[in-house]
Amino acid sequence: MSQKYSALLMDLDGTLVNTLYSLQDTMNKTMDELGLDRITLEQTKKFVGNGGGKFVERALAATADRYYREAEKWEEKDEDRAIDLDQKADEVMELFDDAWNLYMDFFQENCTYKAEPYPGLKACLDELKAEGWKLACITNKSLHEAIKVLDTAYGAGYFDYISGDDGTHPLKPDTGVVDDALAHIGKTAADCLYVGDTNTDMETAKRAGIPSIGCIYGFRTQEELEESGAAICIEQAADLRKAIDYLSE
């Protein structure tokens, strides 16, 4: 075990598990049900990271923005049509409650769809666990679905603690989730490294005073992660141990 660090706080989506396909598929089932635009894999990468509610809101906004852009094109040619398109866009954003309920209903059954650990990551984590490291997952994903995904991908009880959205506390980048995880695994911030793939993760780590490892194999770019404060970035999940050793020097 590293003498400097002995615990990892890790994000879920785009860090521990490739859930991109389950997230996109679930959202597109929701959009289909409401007669709205489907989202692409690239949009999915950009829309996630701040909890399910924000994901739904951003997916709705993608359709609404299309209507708003069309309205702008018609402003000088046909004012009435422009107004109708603006109204359609507003109506799309008013569908949030319906979209959220549909999304969560679909997600309960769909959250493990094509979800699997990134190549080489479990072997690295197995090695760390054997050395006595504590592993905690901190995610803005619904807690019930987070546990289901992690149990499927890694096995039940693999992580020492899982913090997810249970409706009772602020989400990342609020550092309350970090304090909660540290209390449950019996570690301090000085014992930990934070591993994530979004600016939200890097901001959480920065606020908590924990060095962060940015995973550019996940959902966001190296530029975003470095600008948000990543101490080091890795291109492959299998490189996690190298990053840990580098930061432990």
Structure summarized in a few sentences:
This protein has 249 residues and is α/β, with parallel strands linked by helices. 53% of the residues lie in helices and 14% in strands.
Features:
249 residues; alpha/beta; Rossmann fold; six-stranded parallel sheet; elongated
Alpha-beta content class? alpha/beta
The SSE string, one letter per element, is: EEHHHHHEHEHEHEHEHEH
Number of helical segments with 4 or more residues: 11
What is the domain total for the residues?
2
The CATH homologous superfamily name of the largest domain equals: HAD superfamily/HAD-like
What strand line-up does the widest sheet have? 5-4-1-6-7-8
* Estimated radius of gyration: 20 Å
**CATH A-level architecture of the largest domain:** 3-Layer(aba) Sandwich
Q: How much strand?
A: 5-15%
CATH fold group of the largest domain: Rossmann fold
Relative helix content = 40-55%
What does this structure look like?
This protein is an alpha/beta fold. The protein has helices at 20-34, 41-47, 52-74, 79-93, 96-110, 121-130, 143-154, 176-185, 199-208, 222-227, 240-248, and strands spanning 7-10, 17-18, 116-117, 134-142, 161-165, 192-196, 212-215, 232-234. The strands form two sheets. A six-stranded parallel beta sheet has the order 5-4-1-6-7-8, with helices on both faces. It has a two-stranded antiparallel ribbon with strand order 2-3. It is elongated.
List the helices and strands and how they pair.
Blueprint: E1 7-10, E2 17-18, H1 20-34, H2 41-47, H3 52-74, H4 79-93, H5 96-110, E3 116-117, H6 121-130, E4 134-142, H7 143-154, E5 161-165, H8 176-185, E6 192-196, H9 199-208, E7 212-215, H10 222-227, E8 232-234, H11 240-248
Parallel strand pairs: 1-4, 1-6, 4-5, 6-7, 7-8
Antiparallel strand pairs: 2-3
Helix pairs in contact: 1-5, 3-4, 3-5
